[in-house]
Design brief:
Blueprint lengths: L2 E3 L5 H18 L3 H14 L6 E5 L5 E4 L4 E8 L3 H21 L8 E7 L10 H18 L8 E7 L4 E6 L6 E2 L2 H12 L2 H6 L4 E8 L7 E2 L14 E6 L4 E4 L2
Length: 250
């Protein structure tokens, strides 16, 4: 039966402890992917009294230490790949547009939230056109408060800011419960690595699956889920990141 774990600390206490657990490691790994993994692992460690990151590696992702034993931790983020691809496409368009808008001396500092037209999709070879469209629409709106009809942005909300920033808002969505099939597929994906990790002398191997971000590509945890498959991982956890809840499946 799935076990639900929660912390007894306040939000500010968790935040302070999280810094102690991960700040040293963040300085050593500035790249975005590893930074995200370190943050997720730090949040995971908040649910335990004596676990720390001993080493940030790749095989496995982390080596933890509980004061007596080393534990290998493999991490996997679970997302809806199709929705994630769409989110990533629009995020890239807006990052490129923002970079160029920051160089435009005619514009004051501002923060613009741009609601994306629902159900709209574009091809990769349209990227340059879309970047130019975003720049044109936002500049006209910021300077003249005039919204230009266009195929990508449905509406814009602008507010004062310390610099020039824009971001895409994908709008409202129904967040899906993650299925047992997706969980089991994610576990199987990591199975082939266990033996190699144990050959390094780390006998205890844990798997952390992370879900629950803010985008349409995110899943919510099904609290009634029961893991039925056999796995060589000693423990399997699911971290619902946004809600800060940890589930122990094994």
């Amino acid at each position: 039966m799935t076990k639900v774990l929660k912390t007894n600390r306040t939000g500010s206490e968790d935040y302070e402890l999280l810094g102690k657990l991960i700040n040293e490691h963040l300085k050593m790994f500035p790249d975005k992917k590893k930074t995200l993994e370190i943050c997720h692992t730090g949040k995971f460690l908040l649910f335990f009294d004596n676990l720390v990151i001993q080493e940030v590696t790749e095989k496995p992702d982390f080596i933890l230490f509980d004061g007596k034993n080393e534990i290998g931790l493999e991490l996997q983020i679970i997302v809806d790949s199709k929705s994630k691809e769409r989110e990533g496409f629009f995020e890239n368009i807006f990052e490129l547009a923002e970079k160029e808008l920051k160089e435009d001396n005619e514009l004051p500092n501002f923060l613009a939230g741009c609601y994306i037209e629902p159900f709209t999709n574009f091809k990769l070879n349209e990227k340059e056109y879309l970047v130019e469209t975003v720049k044109k629409v936002i500049k006209e709106y910021v300077i003249n408060n005039n919204f230009l009809e266009n195929p990508i942005i449905e509406s814009i909300h602008v507010q004062p800011h310390s610099q020039k920033n824009i971001y895409p808002n994908m709008g409202a969505w129904w967040q899906k419960n993650v299925s047992l099939e997706i969980i089991e597929k994610s576990i199987k994906k990591k199975h082939s690595k266990i033996e190699a990790y144990k050959e390094k002398g780390i006998k205890n191997q844990w798997l952390l699956l992370v879900l629950g971000g803010l985008g349409e590509s995110s899943f919510e945890m099904d609290k009634t889920m029961k893991l039925e498959m056999e796995t060589e991982f000693d423990k399997v956890f699911v971290l619902e990141d946004f809600k800060n809840v940890l589930y122990e499946l094994k």
